[in-house]
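Forgive a beginner's question, but would it be possible to get any protein sequence you like and the tokens describing how it folds?
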Amino acid sequence: GFMVGATLSYRRLPIVDLELQVLYLEQGGELEGAIEFFGETLEGQAKLRIDYIAFPLLASVHAPGAIVRPYLKAGPQIAFRISADAELDSASNVTVETDIKDDTNTVDFSVYFAGGLEFPLTTISAFLEIGYGIGFLDVFKEDQNIGEPINAKNHVLAITAGLSY
């Protein structure tokens, strides 16, 4: 999915930062099998999309350097669901789109790890980063209305590029 956001960084030591981020995240996945929909069982593949507002709090360690500075960061993240929908393409060529917000949990808690390269320019820096988030809470509520219980946790691979001031 898509991600956009802002970071507030506090540098206490020469190579250590503390970052608070605010992010809009599109996350999703695919399910295959049978699903019960308004009393009818449909067989096929469903695409899920869940949007969150996330707040990662990360500790970041930068290697000293002038031209390219590698860094590592890690920390907890709490995210609040703002929307959730599913699109089912059934084996009988029927497409069903539905809001699944009531079947998903409102909060996700995860830990995020990342590494990247920072390229200092004049008064700004560019960066390229790859990270991985591991969710601890189930995406779906225990009492969802979509047939068999679905146990799923968010696992997110992120490739991020941006500018910092």
User: Anything to note?
Assistant: DSSP finds no helices and eight strands in the chain. The chain has a mean pLDDT of 86. The two ends are 26 Å apart (CA to CA). Residues 39 and 147 are 10 Å apart (CA to CA).
